[in-house]
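for the writeup, i need someone to sanity check this before i put it in the appendix. the sequnce is what the collaborator sent (i think, or maybe the updated version? ugh). structure was predicted straight from it, no edits. if anything looks off just tell me and ill rerun, i have time this weekend
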Amino acid sequence: MNDLFREGGTGTGEGYPRFLFRRKYTLLAVIGVILLAAAAAFAAGLAPAGSGPTVPVTVSAHEGFSDIAAALSANHLLRSRMVFEAAALLSGVAFRVPSGTYLLSSGMSVPEILRELSRGPRTVTVTIPEGSDLYQIDRMLADAGVITRGALIGFAADGNLEGRLFPDTYQFFEGSDVATVVQKFLDNFAAKAGPLLPADPSLAERTLTLASLIEQEAPDAHNESMIAGIIEKRLKAGMPLQIDATVCYAKQIALPGEVVDCSALTHGDFASSSPYRSPYNTYLYKGLPPGPIDDPGIVAITAAIHPIASPYWYYLSDPATGKIIYAATLAEQETNIKKYLRP
């Protein structure tokens, strides 16, 4: 028996059967092939899934990592959900994903996605200047990556937001839901502007509308209150307000996807045959516009509530200095126009 098992001579090891020796190394070779194939499959699963656009993925506080993986897979951001989950567990990211909205794309590899998730949602700071309108704010937020272009305008179609997108400095998550962004504006408006406004909704709307005109017309608090007094006096007298900014706003309503340059309005924009015949156009319609034309700050709202009486009926802004030039009569205003506005 001993001689039988030694069959085959040297090279197998003293007392070691050749067929067992071959079986051992065949098994090792098979295991090696399997491991190499698994490693190749794992490496392939780590690669980018494609080259699609960036999409927002929102992670809620109550979601488990399997929910996050399912959301990524549903958005076609992963080659292999199994590989992603394994990599997340091995790296420890699966246990620490902050809630929020992430901007991810199929062009990102699994390690890049995990790096974004571990870092937490990115926030951006956006400052909305006083007198910005809905259309300008939409562009600001889109340029900062907070929302997609036109999302705010589309959301506002279901209700009037103009005047209530309170000008301030905000922090938003990239790729935020537009409803969440709007609520942040409205909460700030309620906290800062709300206490100043009349309790009566119609009076509050009138005050906001007046303040939005003032915001466009004056450079400082004193002039804002002076102009508020002039506008109120013209309204009582039944005189048209003829405020250029309202023509610009009427034009913007008609061209929502375009950037309207208010400094480049033409005579045709002001004419009775103007294509921008919105009720916001105070050259064509008497009285206040039907609502705000921008989003005024506290100073303009205060000026609308506390106008200053004066002997003046007219005013203009000197393009060279920005100074407001007042006139008590139409003749005086025409003289000022020739002096300051016509070369």
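The two ends are 122 Å apart (CA to CA). The chain has four domains: 2-46, 55-119, 123-192, 200-341.
thx in advance!!
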